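Q: Could you fold this chain for me?
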Amino acid sequence: MKIKKILVSQPKPETAKSPYFDLAEKNNIQVDFRPFIQVEGVSAKEFRQTRVQILEHSAVIFTSRTGIDHYFRMSAEMRLTIPDTMKYFCISEATAFYLQKYIVYRKRKIFYGAGRFADLIEVMKKHKEEKFLLPVSQVNQPEITSLIDKAAYKYTKAIFYKTVSSDLSDLKDVNYDILVFFSPSGIQSLMQNFPTFEQDSTKIACFGPATAKAVIEAGLRLDIEAPTVEAPSMTMALEQYIKKHNKG
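A: Sure. Below is the predicted structure, expressed as structure tokens.
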């Protein structure tokens, strides 16, 4: 069976340029996009119950744009004025630039890493005296908190948003040759929406070790994995697999 249809469990890229569009064109296949999970903000009432005081912290750690959105949403809902002295530590330069949506960028103390949390930990070393706030979802990120614990920084982990499964009932009778996943939550959503899911000849591709673990734990077969030395990106891993599979 040749690979003809792929479903990527993420929103469709907003730009006309995407490696997925190139992959589809180059290999003459159909690539569809559908988020398997969605993010919902925690209400101000729920947040107050955690007794976390946003303004008791002198710095915030952002690992995603979602974290930025919900930090400022919560501050607005609770009618808090974030002081100009607040320091922002972002996982990457792109995440840091996203702060411009909410603050005057050049007037603030903003620091960023090179895309890995381990890099950001190094940047934070010069600011050990700060009390950090880490906005997260209810899905735990043990690798991040263990790095902060190891570095012995003072911080509070606070749930600002939740990741929930999308309703995928409209996909019930739709068949794809490859399903692509990027988080354990995506696998959870698949199993929640289709409890009797039989993998059969459907190939499962996943990004990252945590997602790979979730695939195996769900009793599914993992066919394509990224990142690897040969395939640092998901599109490269898919391309290599399709080339091999669609030969002849």
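A (continued): The mean pLDDT is 93.
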